[in-house]
Amino acid sequence: MAEVKLFSGENSAYLAEKIASNYGEQLSDVTINRFSDGEMQPIINQSVRGTYVFFIQSTFPPADNMLELLLMIDSAKRASANYITAVIPYFGYARQDRKDKARVPISAKLISNILQAAGADRVVTMDLHAEQIQGFFDIPVDHLKSEAIFMPYLATQNMENVIFASPDVGGVKRARAYSKHFEKNLVICDKERRIANQVAAMTVIGDVKGFDVILVDDMVDTAGTLCKAAEVLMAEGAKSVRAICTHPILSGPAFERIDASVIERVYVTDTIPLKQISDKLTVLSCADLFAKAIRNTHEYRSIAALFMDGM
């Protein structure tokens, strides 16, 4: 079986090192040179001929993270790597997955095309904003589920009085996986937006009176929806509100909103590094899940087996 080489982009090294440690290998050496104008030149400092190469890089802003990943893939392709996998814990630009108004891009499709053009043979990611994005690729996509991380953790907590909630209609399937697994009820927060990142109105569908509510979402950006949902749930009689959000984008006033909100705790993963610390945030690492996915990919074993038991 071909040798495995693990590489990291600069801004995902904090996570790649943990993934490599869980996998049982050292990260291979790559240097990112920069010209005076900022243009990047990745240099792989060892042979990758005939190897299985895994590039670990979340593609959160700035766009240089995506470009760095593409350039590293191209470097390995031209150096005769046998098989190249882009490990993208957080897949940026996934929120633009359809043409919902005139003259806008379908950015997720464009990114998938670029990754394939660069030379990626496979993509491993987690909790895409919309599962149909997998269909934008003509190469295999292993779509990991954060349920494999959050569900075992929640099982160690007091779940007696819990009810699960989706902060919007689009996230119902995600929240239902938790309600089904823990045999709890599900409620829905139906939101109306007039402009991006701002919630105009929200209605709770279902009874939350006296329950400890856990909101389930794939990401938290400005935290406007999350904090508004928590406020409405408490107004409807919820005893407490916590939240599960896989990707902690946390831009703009997110930290201030969460700290000032009625939310008791927000559980996130480390797909994106936190910009600052908050007493209300608990970070659970996705490193072990990705290490197992890399091993199963290399050894031609099931990826679904890593999380199907937890759903």
Describe the structure.
- The two termini are 32 Å apart.
- The chain has two domains: 165 residues, Rossmann fold (3-Layer(aba) Sandwich); 139 residues, Rossmann fold (3-Layer(aba) Sandwich).
- With 311 residues, it is an alpha/beta fold.
- It is built from eight helices and 14 strands.
- A seven-stranded mixed sheet has the order 10-9-8-11-12-13-14. Strands 1-4-5-6-7 form a five-stranded parallel sheet, with helices on both faces. Strands 2-3 form a two-stranded antiparallel sheet.
Total helices: the number is 8
Largest sheet, in brief, is: 7 strands, mixed
Structural Rg: 20 Å
Shape: globular
CATH class of the largest domain, named: Alpha Beta
CATH topology of the largest domain: Rossmann fold
Number of DSSP E strands? 14
Task: Give the helix proportion (percent range).
Answer: 25-40%
Protein structure class: alpha/beta
Strand order of the largest sheet: 10-9-8-11-12-13-14
Contiguous runs where pLDDT drops below 50 for at least 5 residues = none
Pattern of helices and strands? EHEEEHEHEEHEHEEEHEHEEH
Distance between the termini: 32 Å
**How many structural domains can be distinguished in the coordinates?**
2
CATH architecture of the largest domain: 3-Layer(aba) Sandwich
Strand content: 25-35%
Mean of pLDDT: 94
